[in-house]
Write a structure and sequence with these properties.
Structural class: alpha+beta
CATH class of one domain: Mainly Beta
Number of helices: 12
CATH topology of one domain: Jelly Rolls
Strand order of the largest sheet: 10-9-8-7-6-3-13-12-11
CATH superfamily of one domain: Galactose-binding domain-like
Radius of gyration: 26 Å
Strand content: 25-35%
C-alpha cells in the first residue's frame, strides 16, 4: 500500500489566507471573568525514604525552586513570577506522587523534618505570598477517611483547645486556620498506583466510589465548607462513579492534554505537526460538551463543575526542539485557556506545571531565571483580560488540518465520527496472534474453533493485557470502526474486557489508538470504537484489552469486524481566535488574539467606533518550534503598532503569535 508522505500531507493543510479578519462584539450578555483558569501545579513530592538531603534538595527542600529553606521563606523572584502571571490557584503535591503521599509526614516544623523542608505548611505560605487558592490532592492508594478528616482539622479548625490537629498547626507556626476549600480525592486513580510486581494495583471504580463517599462525609463533618472533587475518566469508570456517588460529588476532575507526539526524528516536520495541533485543539470544547452530556444522561441536567487540574500540550520529546517548551506549545495552551474561559462548567484549570522539572514554565533555581514561552503566554493573557467577558464574532480565513497525533481532523465541513459508514468488513480472515511477554504464566489465551478468543486470568494480578491481536492494512485520513461481541466471567474488581484499534506500529511508537468501553457481563455485549489513523499510517492493529486486574476471571471476544467510515471532523478552523473582555466601568476593552498562521502576518480589524486610544503587545518568535532554552529572548513580548480609524482599530498580527490589545473608549 502506498504511503502518503509528509509533502503530500502538507497539501491537506490548506489555508484560505489573504483576507482580513474582522472582529465585532456579539450581543450575548457579559459574564464575569473566571480567573481560576490561571491555576498551576506546584510539585512537592514526598521524600518517602527520608533520604538525607543536607536541607538543600531541589525537590524535597526547595519545592523545585519556589522555596528558600535557609531563609524559610518563598523565593521572592518565584513569588513575583506567580503574581505577575495572575496565578490564582496552586495545586499540591502534584500528579502521581500523590498516590501514597502521607500528609502527616508533611507537617511539623522544618526542624522535625530536616530532609523535607518544603512540605504542606511551606506550600500554604507560598500560596499566601502569591494570593493563590490552594488545591490539595489526597492520596488514593493510602490513607483513610478518618485521616482525611484530621487533615481538614489541621487546616481549618480553630485552635481552641478542642482540636488536637489545629493545635499541631499552631505549633507549626500558624494559629489562624488556613480555610482551605478545594480538595481532590486522588489523582488519575484509574491508571494504577505505579508500583511494580506484587505491589502493583489498580483501584476499580466501585471501590473508588465507596472511598469518595466515605472521605467526603468524614471531611465535611469537620468543615461543611470544604469541597471534594472526584476523578473523571471515561466509559465504565464514569458510569459506575455516577451511579454510586454522583449525587454527592462536588465537582469532577478531568485532565486534558492536547495531542500526543514523542518522536525525536523531526518527522513530521514541526510546521506540519503544529498545523495539525492548531486545527485539532478545538477538540477541548467538544470534550467539555461530552462531559456535560454524560452528566445529563446520568440524571444531572445542570451538570457539575469541572476542575481541570492538569492541562497542557502533550509532547514528550527533545529533538529537534522540546515542543512542550516551544512557542507553538504555548499557543496551544492559550487556545485551551480561551475555551475554558467561555465554558461555564469550568470551575478552575491548572497548567502542568509551574517551576523546573520536565514541564515547568519557569526554569532555574537561582538567578538568572528563564521565562519559557508558556509563562510569557499566561502573563500576557492575564494582563489583557479585564473584568467582564464578552463574546466576539470572528470572521477569519479558515484552514484545514488532517488530524492525527491525538487530535481529530479539522477540515471542510464538520462530521461526527461514524457517519458515512460502509458495511463491508475490511478485516482479513486470520487467526489471533498471541504474545506472552509479561504474562508470567498468570494468563492463558487461546482461540476456539469458531474464532472466539478466550483469555483466562488465573488470579487478581494487576496485568495490563494487550497480548492478542489482529492486523490489517489501512489508508490514512479515513475513519475505521471496529465492532465485536464481548462477554466476561468473574473480573468483578478488574476493568472490563474491551477492544483497542490503533496504529500498526504500536502505541508506544505512535501514541495513537481508540478503545471500546469495557464489558463486565455474562451476556454477549456489542462494543464499538472509531479510530482515525495518522497521516503516514499504512496498517492497523486490533487488540483484546483488559487495562487492570483485581479479580480472576475470563473474557470472550467474537465476531470482530472493521468498517471504513468518516472520522471525527471538527470542520475547518479559523486562522484567528479571540477573547474579548471589558472593564467594570465600561471605559476599556481588551482583546487576546491568537494567529495560527505559521508564516504570514494576519491583518485584523476590530470594529470599535468609539476608540480613543489603543495599545498592543505581541508574543512571537522566529518559528513555531522556537524555545528560550538557549536564548532567553528568542520568544518574547514586544510592542505592536495599532492604527485608530474612524470606525475601527486595525493591526497586523505576526505569524504564530499571541497578541494583547487594550482600547480606551
Amino acid at each position: 500500500m502506498k504511503k502518503i508522505g509528509w509533502m503530500a500531507a502538507a497539501g491537506l493543510l490548506a489555508l484560505t489566507a489573504g483576507a482580513e479578519t474582522g472582529i465585532t462584539i456579539g450581543p450575548a450578555p457579559a459574564i464575569p471573568v473566571n480567573r481560576r483558569v490561571f491555576g498551576n501545579n506546584q510539585l512537592a513530592y514526598q521524600n518517602a525514604g527520608n533520604a538525607a538531603t543536607g536541607g538543600n534538595h531541589n525537590s524535597y527542600d526547595k519545592g523545585y525552586g519556589v522555596w528558600d529553606p535557609v531563609k524559610d521563606a518563598p523565593v521572592p523572584e518565584m513569588a513575583g513570577f506567580a503574581r505577575s502571571a495572575g496565578m490564582t490557584v496552586q495545586r499540591f503535591p502534584g500528579g502521581c506522587g500523590t498516590h501514597f503521599f502521607d500528609w502527616k509526614k508533611a507537617v511539623g516544623t522544618p526542624a522535625e523534618r530536616p530532609n523535607q523542608r518544603f512540605a504542606l505548611p511551606e506550600f500554604l505560605r507560598f500560596c499566601e505570598a502569591t494570593g493563590a487558592e490552594p488545591v490539595i490532592t489526597l492520596a488514593d492508594y493510602a490513607g483513610t477517611a478518618a485521616e482525611a478528616a484530621e487533615l481538614v482539622e489541621y487546616l481549618n479548625a480553630p485552635d481552641d483547645g478542642r482540636h488536637p490537629w489545629a493545635a499541631r498547626r499552631a505549633a507549626d507556626g500558624r494559629k489562624e486556620p488556613w480555610n482551605v476549600v478545594w480538595f481532590e480525592c486522588g489523582n488519575e486513580t484509574y491508571h494504577g498506583n505505579h508500583r511494580k510486581g506484587a505491589e502493583s494495583r489498580t483501584m476499580p471504580s466501585q471501590e473508588y466510589a465507596v472511598r469518595y463517599r466515605e472521605f467526603r462525609r468524614a471531611m465535611r463533618a469537620v468543615d461543611p465548607k470544604v469541597r471534594l472533587g472526584a476523578v473523571w475518566h471515561r466509559g465504565e469508570w464514569n458510569r459506575v462513579l455516577l451511579e454510586q456517588a454522583g449525587a454527592e460529588i462536588d465537582f469532577f476532575i478531568p485532565h486534558i492534554y492536547v495531542g500526543g507526539y514523542s518522536g525525536n526524528d523531526g518527522n513530521p516536520p514541526p510546521e506540519t505537526l503544529f498545523r495539525i495541533m492548531f486545527g485539532g485543539v478545538r477538540m477541548v470544547s467538544e470534550m467539555l460538551k461530552e462531559f456535560r452530556q454524560e452528566l445529563e444522561a446520568a440524571g444531572m441536567p445542570g451538570g457539575k463543575p469541572l476542575a481541570v487540574t492538569e492541562f497542557n500540550c502533550h509532547f514528550g520529546q527533545e529533538k529537534p526542539a522540546p515542543y512542550r517548551l516551544s512557542l507553538g506549545g504555548a499557543l496551544i495552551c492559550a487556545e485551551i485557556l480561551r475555551q475554558f474561559l467561555y465554558n461555564p462548567d469550568v470551575l478552575m484549570a491548572n497548567y502542568w506545571q509551574f517551576a523546573n522539572e520536565y514541564w515547568g514554565m519557569i526554569r532555574g533555581c537561582e538567578t538568572p531565571y528563564r521565562e519559557r514561552p508558556a509563562y510569557r503566554m499566561q502573563k500576557l493573557f492575564h494582563r489583557y483580560l479585564l473584568d467582564e467577558l464578552l463574546t466576539p464574532e470572528v470572521a477569519a480565513p479558515l484552514f484545514d488540518a488532517p488530524g492525527g497525533y491525538g487530535v481529530p481532523k479539522a477540515a471542510g465541513k464538520a462530521t461526527r465520527a461514524g457517519e458515512g459508514e460502509h458495511s463491508a468488513n475490511l478485516l482479513p480472515v486470520q487467526k489471533w496472534r498471541f504474545l506472552d511477554g509479561g504474562l508470567s504464566g498468570k494468563v492463558e489465551q487461546h482461540e476456539h474453533a469458531d474464532g472466539t478468543l478466550e483469555v483466562v486470568f488465573r488470579d487478581g494480578s494487576d496485568i495490563n493485557y494487550y497480548h492478542a491481536a489482529k492486523l490489517m492494512p489501512a489508508y490514512p485520513l479515513y475513519g475505521y470502526r471496529v465492532t465485536a461481541e464481548v462477554r466476561t466471567e468473574g473480573l468483578e474488581n478488574a476493568t472490563g474486557a474491551a477492544l483497542q484499534i490503533g496504529d500498526g506500529r504500536g502505541f508506544n511508537a505512535t501514541r495513537s489508538c481508540a478503545g471500546t468501553e469495557g464489558v463486565k457481563s455474562a451476556e454477549w455485549q456489542t462494543v464499538s470504537a472509531v479510530y482515525t489513523p495518522l497521516v503516514d499510517t499504512d496498517s492497523l492493529i486490533i487488540q483484546a484489552r483488559r487495562m487492570a486486574g483485581g479479580s480472576p476471571g475470563r473474557m470472550f471476544i467474537r465476531n470482530v469486524r472493521v468498517m471504513q467510515t468518516l472520522p471525527e471532523n471538527l470542520g475547518a478552523s479559523p486562522l484567528v481566535e479571540a477573547t474579548v473582555s471589558r472593564s467594570k466601568d465600561g471605559k476599556k476593552l481588551a482583546f487576546v488574539l491568537i494567529n495560527k498562521s505559521l508564516d504570514a502576518a494576519e491583518p485584523v480589524m476590530l470594529a470599535i467606533p468609539a476608540a480613543a486610544k489603543a495599545k498592543a503587545e505581541t508574543l512571537t518568535g522566529p518559528s513555531v518550534a522556537a524555545t528560550n532554552e538557549d536564548d532567553p529572548e528568542c520568544v518574547a513580548v514586544r510592542p505592536l503598532a495599532v492604527e485608530l480609524r474612524k470606525e475601527a482599530v486595525t493591526l497586523q498580527l505576526p505569524p504564530c503569535s499571541l497578541t494583547g490589545v487594550e482600547v480606551e473608549l
